[in-house]
Amino acid sequence: MAASEPFTPGTPPLFTVNESVAESLTGHRPVLLNLLDGFVDGGQVIKTISETVLEHCEHEPLVVFDHDQVHDYRSRRPLITFDTDRFTAAEDISIVLHKVRDGHGEEFLLLAGPEPDARWELMLSGLQHLVERFDVRLTVSAHGVPMAVPHTRPITMTVHGTDPELIGDQRAWIDRVEIPASLSALLEFRLGEQDRAAHGFAVHVPHYIAQSRFPSAAVAAMESIALVSGLALPIDELRPAMATTLTEIENEAQQSEEVQRVVAELERQYDAFMERDADLPSADEIGAEFERFLRNRGSDDDPQGF
Q1: Among 301, 241, 289, which Cα is nearest to 145's?
Q2: Which residues does UniProt call coiled coil (predicted)?
Q3: How much is the CA Rg of the chain, to the nearest whole Å?
Q4: Of the candidates 148, 155, 156, 77, the residue with the CA atom closest to the CA atom of residue 293
Q5: Cβ distance 228 to 140 under 8 Å?
Q6: Hey, which end of the chain has fewer CB within 10 Å, N or C?
Q7: How big is the CA angle at 105 (ends 102 and 106), to the nearest 5 degrees?
Q8: Percentage of the residues of the chain whose pLDDT score is greater than 70
């Protein structure tokens, strides 16, 4: 039996809970993996992780949100297929909180779908309510950010969260910087105000391939999520695609002396920083990478992104 839960009297409910699925979570204190697809996701990290988990793990819908209340159709129009003389298919927009079973049989929650365009405060209230209702012990997010790093070096990431013990001695890659907010970032902030554990990984994706899918970044994110949460995620399912993509990028780079020079300079900067001989990226540099990424969004057809 499903139950709807409105948050403002006289307004339609924001979401519907599958109560029979909810009952099975009683006493579990699950991890919540927040993979709302925000406006910045270099290398399609969010999409790759979400698709991989839902494809290879047993799951069922726990909460279905009324996306019609929060989606701006004129800003992000769903795709529709026209074939010869008729429309044959339409893209389905949905925001769903799934109950998922990992490789060891542990149940966790996965929030997937497009980031809401409107009514963020209502959405945040709803998500905080669900975190409390299901007694979520840890909320984890991940996404990709374009950075001046080479694809030939180990993946790095900016680690953030509400619990300093979870962050530990992770290397800091940037100093204080103001960036456009995402709903996921605001959720982490609000959960921190409630003394709830929330953690996130901003995976550094080479800026020259940030528009394309970069499985190496998704693998790095999933490994970090597994380490902090204890979940057994289907990481190995992505390793063949990771190897293939790296080979494609290398082959493309070998055809351009200019690209080789760029990669070589990025390698020099990366190695110097890892030895703590280089300065942290400035706020202006980080902001410029964000702006560049946003200007060039939407070019998913080029597998290499050069």
Answers
A1: 289
A2: 249-276
A3: 20
A4: 148
A5: yes
A6: N
A7: 70
A8: 84
Q: What is the pLDDT of residue 88?
A: 97
Quick one: pLDDT at residue 13? Answer: 92
CA distance 181 to 39: 9
Residue with tokens 């975190």: 131
Sheet with strand 157-161: strands edge to edge: 2-4, 15-18, 58-65, 96-101, 107-114, 31-37, 138-147, 198-206, 157-161
What phi and psi values does residue 248 have, to the nearest 5 degrees? Answer: -65, -40
Q: Count the helices and strands in the chain (H runs, E runs).
A: 9, 11
CA gap 169, 165 in Å, rounded: 9
For residue 38, the SS3 value is coil
Q: Between 239-254 and 257-274, two packed helices, what is the crossing angle to 10 degrees?
A: 120
pLDDT the model gives residue 285: 61
Strand (E) positions, 119-269? 138-147, 157-161, 198-206
- Can you read off the two tokens belonging to residue 63? 């909460």
> What's 39's DSSP letter?
S
pLDDT-flagged residues of the chain (< 50): 277-278, 280, 283, 298-306
pLDDT, one tens digit per residue, over 83-120 is 999 999 999 999 999 999 999 999 999 999 999 999 99
DSSP letter assigned to residue 162: S
Query: How high is the mean pLDDT of the chain?
Result: 88
Instruction: Report how far residue 10's alpha carbon sits from residue 221's, in angstroms, rounded to the nearest whole number.
Output: 41
**What are the pLDDT digits (tens) for 250-268?**
998 888 888 889 899 999 9
Sign, CA dihedral 61-235-150-166, equals: positive
- Name the pairing type of β-strands 31-37 and 107-114: parallel
